[in-house]
Amino acid sequence: MQKINDDLQVKINLFGCNLANQRKNMKYSQQEIAEMTGTTQNILSKYERGLTSPRLEYLFKLEEIGFDIKNMLITGDNQCMAYTLNHQEKMLIDLFRNTDQALQLQAIGLLATGNSIQNKLEVKRQDGDLNQNSAVIAEKQIIITKKQ
């Protein structure tokens, strides 16, 4: 069930990104679109940020203004695909940002090699310093160096 919810959220995020891009390409402000569709700027902002999804009637109103609803719902903008994350991807980024540098380097090494979590990941220290500058995977000797 979580997979379905994640996929649905990705589609809602994509729709929002496509809506924002089309609105900007058409040179409309959020306020102008809100007035033309009988909603508020706040609600439109929530649609564009993927916080909520519009009702079918709203899509018809957008189409009347000139929005390409089929494109927004089915094909979309490739630019939006690159910036739309599902729940797991967002969680991974959040966890990564909220951990120390040594663990970040270990995670990068683990993901880069495709090794399972059971494979031991060693962190190499330079001159006994506790600041990690590189991670070494013992089995494959893959080195990931942090830019300084």
Automatic annotation (TrEMBL):
**One annotated GO molecular function:** DNA binding
Q: Which InterPro entries match?
A: Cro/C1-type_HTH, Lambda_DNA-bd_dom_sf
Q: Which Gene3D superfamilies match?
A: lambda repressor-like DNA-binding domains
Which Pfam families does this entry report, sorted A to Z? HTH_3
Span of domain HTH cro/C1-type = 19-65
PROSITE patterns named in the record: HTH_CROC1 (PS50943)
| Organism domain of life | Bacteria
What name does this protein carry?
Helix-turn-helix transcriptional regulator
Whose protein is this, by species?
Phocoenobacter atlanticus subsp. atlanticus
